[in-house]
């Protein structure tokens, strides 16, 4: 699971610099860089800080971090069909654009 890479993808898609995100999370830019390059693995409290700062559900990061090696062999065909669509939906949640007030909410 590539949590750091997923965090970097979301951060860049939202137009947030690494320094700004680090400051928003009260951590050093060096530590955030180590997370994004996968040399450090963030704990649950750090993940919460990062997701809260970017105003996204933690699940978005976990979805984007998924790899087919985490999927049982007999389910990989279904994963290969569905994951591109799921990934695109997760990325739409982190778009820098504001959601329109008129759009229906699905819960």
Describe the fold and architecture:
The chain is mostly helical and 107 residues long. The protein has helices spanning 3-13, 18-24, 29-36, 44-54, 58-65, 76-93. It has six helices and no strands. The protein is globular. It is 59% helix and 0% strand. The protein has a single domain, classed as Orthogonal Bundle (434 Repressor (Amino-terminal Domain)), CATH 1.10.260.
Annotation keywords:
mainly alpha, 434 Repressor (Amino-terminal Domain), 0% strand, single chain, disordered C terminus, globular
Mean pLDDT: 87
Helix content: 55-70%
List SSEs in N-to-C order.
Answer: HHHHHH
Cα distance spanning the termini: 27 Å
Largest sheet: none
Count of the domains: 1
Query: So what's the CATH class?
Result: Mainly Alpha
Number of strands: 0
Strand content: under 5%
Structural class: mainly alpha
CATH fold topology: 434 Repressor (Amino-terminal Domain)
CATH superfamily: lambda repressor-like DNA-binding domains
Please count the helical segments.
6
Backbone CA Rg: 15 Å
Low-confidence stretches: 99-107
CATH architecture level-2 label: Orthogonal Bundle
Shape: globular
Question: In short, what is this structure?
Answer:
With 107 residues, the protein is mostly helical.
Question: What's the topology here?
Answer:
Layout: H1 3-13, H2 18-24, H3 29-36, H4 44-54, H5 58-65, H6 76-93
